[in-house]
Amino acid sequence: MTTASQTQAQDRDSAEAKTLNPYILWRRSFVRWVTRRIPPSRHILLDINNIFIIPNRQGLGFFIVLTLMFIGAINYESSLAFALVFLLLGMFILTIFYTYRNLSGLHLSAVANNMVFAGENAEITVILNRYGKRIFEAVELSFPESRKQVADLIEEKEKRINLFVPTARRGYLKPGRLRVETFFPFGICRAWSLVDLDIKCLVYPKPIECDLDLIHSADIESGKINITRGNDDFYNLREYQLGDPLKHVAWKNFARGQGMYTKQYSSNVDDKLWLRWSMFPDLNDEDRLSRLCYCVLKLDAAGVDYGLDIPGCTVEPNKGTEHYQQILRALALY
Amino acid sequence: MFAALKNKSNIDTETAYQVPRTSLTWMLVALVAIIAPHVPRMPVWLVGVCAVCVLARVLIHQGRLSYPGFLIKAGIVIIVMTAMVAQFGRDVFATESTVAILIVAICLKLLEMHRKRDVLLVVYLSYFTLIAEFIWSQSILIAAYMVGCVLLVTAALMSLNQTEEYQNPLRTLKLSSAILLQSVPLMLALFILFPRISPLWSVPLQSASARTGLSDSMSPGDIGDLIASDELAFRVSFEGEQPASSELYWRAITLDDFDGREWEQSFNFEPQYLGADRRETRDWFNNIEYQGDILEYNVIMEPTDENWIYTLKVPQIVDDRMVMRRDFQVDSVRNISQRFSYDMRSHLNHRVDTGVSQRLLRRWLRLPDNSNQESLQFAADMREQALSDEAYVRNVLDYFTQQEFFYTLSPPLLGENPVDEFLFATREGFCEHYASSFTFLMRAAGIPARVVTGYQGGEYNPYDNTLVVRQYDAHAWSEVWLEGQGWIRVDPTAAVAPYRIEQGSQFTFQEDEVFLQNAGLSLLRFRNSLFLNDLRYRLEMIDYTWNRFVLNYDQSMQFAFFSRFFNEVTREKIITSSLVFVFLSFSIIIFMVLRKPSRNHLNPATELYLGFCEGLSRQGLSRKRGETPWHYYQRLSRIKPAWAQQIREITEKYIDLVYRRRESDEDKAAIRDLKTQIRQFHMMMY
User: Fold this and answer.
1) What is the pLDDT of residues B489-534, one digit of tens each?
2) Domain locations along chain B
3) With an 8 Å Cβ cutoff, is B593 touching chain A?
4) Domain range summary for chain A, segments of one domain joined by +
C-alpha cells in the first residue's frame, strides 16, 4: 500500500515537473536554495548573506528611458544631454546600493499570538529593531499568505508590525518565510530577503456549535455520574492553583509548611464536567474536535470545572486560563 | 475570460491607488519647472491646454473633479492632435513640434493617473523632457536650472516610494541631492571617457528659418539688417599672436552669379571639393604659394542650419568633417544645426591660382545682359583710361574715395538697376552696396571678380584671449583675379570708411539708431561703462570656457586632457585610467553608503560580543531571544562541545568586562584581549 501511494506521488511530481514552466521550476529551486542559505533562526540580522537585490520592472523602464535619452543625446550631439544621461546612470547604479542599505543592518524577530481558531487569521507580530544611526524606510513585510504591511524605522529603534495569516486547519501553523522587501529610494531596484523566523502558531480547532446537554448525557451513559453525586464531604487535597477560592485552601497544612493545598469536596466533584470523545459518536474526528472546542469555550465562559478525556490525552477537571489553554492545545494537537 | 479577470483585479486593487499628496506636489512642481523653458517655443493654446491639465489634476486630487471618462479623453486627444497638425502642418514631425507633443502628452497623462504605473510613466517622461531643452540651449544658466529640475523629478520619484506617514519634503530633497551628488564622479568619468558617436539619423529642427545670420545670396540691404543684431556668430581662439583686426576677413560664402540685383552662389558648374584627407590632391591646391607663418586657431560657431563655416584665407583643412571648394569656401559635411567647434589653419600671406586657365576664369566674368547699362559704359571708359588691370582697380577705389560716397546703415531703397542707381544717384550704401558695385565694375572691365560675404574683425576679450564675432560684424567684400597675383582681396568699404575695418562696426555705428536695435537690453549697450564692460568680458569668458570645454568636448580634447597626466596618450591609457578612477571613486562612495551602522550606544565589549554572536548565528547557532550570554554558552557547549572551551572563555571575559568595575586602562587591555580572542575563534570557525 505504501509503495502504491509513493509511486502515485512520484507520478504526480514528475507530471508536474514536466508540465510546469521553467519559471516555476526555477522558483522552486530558488526556494530550496534559500532554505539552505538562510537557515531558520529566532533572530535574524539582515546583511550581505541574506539580502538579494535586483533591478525590477520599473528599473527596466527607467533603463529604457535612459537608452532613449542616450539616443537623443547622440542624435542632437548635446554634451549636456550626455552629462544628464551619465548622471542618471550613476544614480541608477547607486540605487542598487542604497536599496540594499535600506535592509542591511535590520534586526528581525517575531512572536506568534496563540489565541487563534482555525478559519480565523493568525496574528504574527514581527519585531524590527535597529541599532545605530541607520534608518530604514518603507520596508514591506509579508508572509506568503498575508497582506503586505509597510514599516518605517526612522525615529524609533523598534517597531512591531502585526501580520495576519489565514488559517485553515488546527494544529501548528508554519506561516512560511517572511518576505522582507524594499524598493526605497527610487523603486527601480528590489532588495528582499526570505527569512524563516522559526515561529509556529498553534491553531485551535474551529468551534462548531452543539448542544451543551450532551456533556451530562455522556456522563450518565458511562455511569460515572453516580460518583460525582454526593454530599459535601471532604474528598481530596490538591496543589493550590491560581483562581481557587481562598476559603478552600488547607491553611493547616500551609501553616505546617507543607505548601499550599486546596481542599476538594465531593460536592465540588459534582460541578466537574468531562468532555469526552464519546459525546459525538456519529461524527468524524475533526467535527468532534470542533464541537469539543465549542464546549470548552462555553464552559470556560461559565466558569465551571471541566476535564477532557479524548484518546491519548486526559486532562483532570479544573478551570482557569492555564487549564483552558492546556485543553485547547490538546484539542489542537490531537 | 482571463483578461476579464485581470481587468477586474486591476479595478479592485489599483484604481484604489491614490497618488500621495506630497508626491503629487513634487511631480506637478517638477513638471511646471520642466515645461517653463519650452513655453516660448510652444503655441499659446498648447500652453493653455497644459495649464488646464495641471489644474484639473489638482482638482481631481482634491476630489472636486472626477477622472474624465473615455469619451472625454478621446475627444481631448483628437482635438489636440488635429490642432497640432493644423498648427504645424508638414512640420509636425520636426523636433520643435515633437517636443510640444511630448509635453502635452505628459500633461494629458496627468488626467488618467489611476495606477502607480501611470505615475511612474509621467516621472520617466519628465526625465526625458529634461534633455529636450538642451536641443535649444546649453548655456550655463540653463544647465544650472536643469540640475534643479533633475533634483525635483528625482525627489518626486523618491517620494513615490516613501510611506505616507513619513513624507518629509526636506529629507526627501536632502537624500535625493546626496544620491545625485554621489553620481557626479561617474558622470564626469563617463563624460570624459565615453567616445562620442556621430548622430544615427538626421533630425530636422523647426526654427531653421528663424536664425539670424548670413544667407546664401546677397542683395542690397541684406547685410545691413544683421547690424541690428548682437547675436553671437562665432568665437575664435588663436594659437599664438592674434593678427591685426584689418587682417581678419572671415570668409563664409563666395558669390559668383549676378542677376543685376542679387548675388548668388553659382549652381551652373560642379564645384570641386577637396577633403581633409586630400586623397585626390588637386593641382590648384598644390599650386598655392605660401609666405610667412601659418596661423592656427579654433572656432566655435553658433548653429546656422547651413553648411558653410568661417575661415581666413587661405585655409588648410585638417578635419574630415569639412571640405574645401574650388573658391576656397569651406563647407561642413553636415548642416550646422548645433554649435560647432573646429580647428583651422590659414596662411594669411599667399598667392593662389596664379596659373589658372582663362576658360575657368570666364565664369567669374559673367554679367546679366540688360541691366545697369550706365555702369557698363562707365567701366568701359574707366578701363580705357587705365594702363593696366591693377591701375583700373586702384582708379575705381579712388573713385569711391574722391566722389561723395557715404557709408550708412540706412541707405535709400534701390530699384531695377541698383548698381547704376547707387553709383550715380544715391551714393549712400552699406558694405554690400560697395562690394556689389565694385565687383560689377571689375567684371564689366574684364577682370574676374567675385563677392565674398562673411564677417570682419571682432571683439577681443582680454580675459580669455578670444575673439568674439557677432552678427553686427557681418561684412561683404570683393576678390579679383589679377595676372601674376592670382586672387586678391579688395575691400571697397575700406576705401570709403577705413574706420569700419580698423575699429570694427560697433565703434562705427554706435551712434546709429539701427545698430543693436534688435539686441534688447544687452550688456553691449553699456560698453561705455568701464565696470559693465569689464563684467561683460568676464561673463563672456565663462561662457566661452563652458562652450569650449564642456559643450564641445570631443576626442581631441579627450587626448588633450589626458596628456596632462601621461607623456604619451593612447586610447588604452585613457580607458584604463578612467576605469581606475571610476572604480576608486565609486568604491569610496559605496563604502560610505554601506558602512556598517555604528552601534555607538553600546559599550565596546557589548559590540564585540554581538559581533561574536553574529558569527555564530551565521552557523545557524543564533542566540535566542532573552537568552543570557551564560545560558547561550551552556546551550552551545551541548551542541558544539569542541568549541565549548573557547566560547566559555569569551563569555566569561565579556561578563567580566560588562559587570565588573575596572580601571579604564585595564579595561582597554581587556577589550583588546577579547577582540583577539573573538577573532581567533571566528578564524577557527570558518
Assistant:
1) 999 988 888 887 777 777 677 666 666 666 655 666 666 777 888 8
2) 15-167, 217-514, 604-685
3) yes
4) 1-37, 39-204, 214-332
